[in-house]
């Protein structure tokens, strides 16, 4: 009987990792690559563009022409423009508080009000594996800096790509290719299989017990 309990306990443990992993990547989900790029940055050669990632980790990135910028999923990046003549990256400093002070107090920085949200996980059966938001500079002067989301580019697991135009700045356009099965099916599948195995094992034990 002791051996049977050990086997039963082992089967139950098959369920536990699925539940624990929810703190990292939820069961039935997968990681997806996300980044954003500025499409017409080359049209503004007199300016430097910087993404500041703020809380909770800080950090910044000087955005070059071909950069696709990724960031920690809980960050809330703000994109700034500053004239080249007013910019020296060494002034930002390497410490968190120095960096924060630079972006909060530098009057030469022009802040865009665009809101960018990262995507880190999607349903495991989702055919996408990379998402790129393409931004466009629509206005830049000494007193104003405006960015808009022009399109999103989806790359699928078969390496094909699709571009969708933004019609609402607050809503990312849906990809044309969607998961065949509902998201909750993929999420439950990895829990259902171990549970079925446990139930079958328990049923076998009960059948043998009543036959004696």
Report on the architecture of this protein.
- Helix 1 packs antiparallel against helix 4 (about 185-210).
- A four-stranded mixed β-sheet has the order 2-8-9-10, with no helix packed on it. The chain has a four-stranded antiparallel β-sheet with strand order 4-3-5-6, with no helix packed on it.
- With about 210 residues, it is α+β, with helices and mostly antiparallel strands.
- The longest helix is centred in the C-terminal third of the chain and has 29 residues, at about 185-210.
- It is built from four helices and ten strands, in the order H-H-E-E-E-E-E-H-E-E-E-E-E-H.
- It has a domain at about 30-180.
- A hairpin with a 4-residue loop joins strand 9 (about 145-155) and strand 10 (about 160-165).
- It starts with a helix and ends with a helix.
Briefly say what this structure is:
The chain is α+β, with helices and mostly antiparallel strands.
Q: Topology of this protein?
A:
Blueprint: H1 2-13, H2 16-20, E1 29-31, E2 33-38, E3 47-52, E4 60-62, E5 78-83, H3 96-105, E6 110-111, E7 121-123, E8 128-140, E9 145-156, E10 161-165, H4 183-211
Parallel strand pairs: 2-8
Antiparallel strand pairs: 1-7, 3-4, 3-5, 5-6, 8-9, 9-10
Helix pairs in contact: 1-4
Order of strands in the sheet with most strands:
2-8-9-10
* Overall pLDDT score: 85
Q: What about the largest sheet?
A: 4 strands, mixed
Q: Spell out the helices and strands N to C.
A: HHEEEEEHEEEEEH
Percent range for β-strand residues: 25-35%
The coarse overall form would be elongated
Judged by helices, strands and strand pairing, the structural class is alpha+beta
As residue ranges, the low-confidence spans are 4-23
Alpha carbon gap, first and last residue: 14 Å
Total helical segments: 4
Can you give the helix content as a percent range? 25-40%
Radius of gyration: 25 Å
| Total number of strands | 10
The oligomerization state is single chain
């Amino acid at each position: 009987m002791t051996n049977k309990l050990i086997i039963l306990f082992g089967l139950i443990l098959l369920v536990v990792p699925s539940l624990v992993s929810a703190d990292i990547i939820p069961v039935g989900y997968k990681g997806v690559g996300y980044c954003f790029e500025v499409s017409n940055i080359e049209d503004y050669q007199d300016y430097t563009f910087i993404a500041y990632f703020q809380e909770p980790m800080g950090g910044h990135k000087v955005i070059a022409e071909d950069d696709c910028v990724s960031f920690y999923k809980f960050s809330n990046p703000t994109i700034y423009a500053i004239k080249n003549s007013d910019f020296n990256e060494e002034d930002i400093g390497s410490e968190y508080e120095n960096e924060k002070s630079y972006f909060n107090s530098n009057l030469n920085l022009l802040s865009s009000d665009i809101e960018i949200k990262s995507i880190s996980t999607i349903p495991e059966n989702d055919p996408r594996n990379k998402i790129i938001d393409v931004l466009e500079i629509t206005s830049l002067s000494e007193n104003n800096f405006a960015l808009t989301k022009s399109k999103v580019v989806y790359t699928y697991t078969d390496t094909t790509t699709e571009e969708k135009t933004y019609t609402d700045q607050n809503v990312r356009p849906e990809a044309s290719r969607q998961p065949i099965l509902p998201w909750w099916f993929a999420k439950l599948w990895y829990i259902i299989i171990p549970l079925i195995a446990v139930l079958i094992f328990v049923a076998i034990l009960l059948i043998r017990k009543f036959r004696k």
